[in-house]
Amino acid sequence: MKQSVGNDVTKDTPLMDAGVDSLAASELVQLLSGEFSVELSATLLFDHPSVASISTHVALLVAAHVGTMEREISLVEEI
Q: Could you tell me how far CA 31 lies from the centroid of its own chain?
C-alpha cells in the first residue's frame, strides 16, 4: 500500500482518502483475489475502505472457501 499511497497508513485509514486511486484499487483487488484464491468485487475498497476491513472480509471469504472444501472432501470420503 505504501507504494500506492506514498506514505504509511494505519489499519483503519480509509485507503481512498489516503490517496489510493481507482487503478491502484483495481490492482489491489486483482492481487488479493489471486493471492487468496477468492473472488473479490471491483468495489472492494468502497465496500471495505480500510486495511482492517479488507482483511476481515478476505479472511471470512477464505474461511468460507476452506469450509466448503472440507465438506466436499467429507462427502467424497463417504462414497
A: 9
Q: pLDDT tens digits for 10-20?
A: 999 999 999 89
Tell me how many degrees the CA angle 19-8-50 measures, rounded to the nearest 5: 60
> What is the structure's pLDDT at 4?
57
Instruction: Specify the amino acid at residue 33.
Output: S
Angstrom distances, CA of residue 79 to CA of 52, 69, 73: 41, 16, 10
Let me know if domain 2-78 sits in CATH 1.10.1200.10: yes
Domain ranges of the chain: 2-78
Contact 61, 36 (CB under 8 A): yes
